Amino acid sequence: MGSRSETVFRRLVNFSTALDELDTSVAASIIAHIIQFEKAWKVSKHDGEIPSGFHFEPYLRVDDPYRLCQIRVGPKHGYRALAMFLNRSSDAYWIHLFKKVKNRQPEDMQRARILAQQLWNELKREL
Q1: Hey, which CATH number is domain 4-126, 3.30.2310.20, 3.20.20.70, 3.40.30.120, 2.60.120.10?
Q2: Closest Cα to residue 105, out of 83, 85, 67, 79?
């Protein structure tokens, strides 16, 4: 992975669509948290320096040349935003956004894994 300070975050269409479907105040809160996280990421040297308020959580069992991580965002941190960080690159992608609902998180986590794999397959074709 490149230097964190050089990370360029991009939002995938499905992430932006999910954001656009939310109430304006909820979306504004999520965007504010995402911007704060991006700043914190860029000044950090490793994951342990990410402020605990984001509840930064790497997903396990990702064997591809990227990492998949989630943070808590939005009102009462009731939403999860998933970012994909490419190994040996300063590119990062916001790929999935969902409201934390009891008994649904495993499905949403699996959806994020699928989206990340699809994006990785697209990126490989472009290389």
Answers
A1: 3.30.2310.20
A2: 79
Contact 89, 2 (CB under 8 A): yes
- Which among 64, 54, 66, 57 is positioned nearest to 7, based on CA atoms? 66
Q: What is the pTM assigned to this prediction?
A: 0.89
Of all residues in the chain, what percent carry a pLDDT higher than 90?
64
In the chain, DSSP assigns E strands to 8-11, 57-58, 66-73, 79-86, 91-99
Cα separation, 31 vs 54, whole angstroms: 13
pLDDT mean across residues, the chain: 90
The per-residue pLDDT for range 45-76, each reduced to its tens digit, is 999 999 999 999 988 777 778 889 999 999 99
Q: Is 72 helix (H, G, I), strand (E, B) or coil?
A: strand
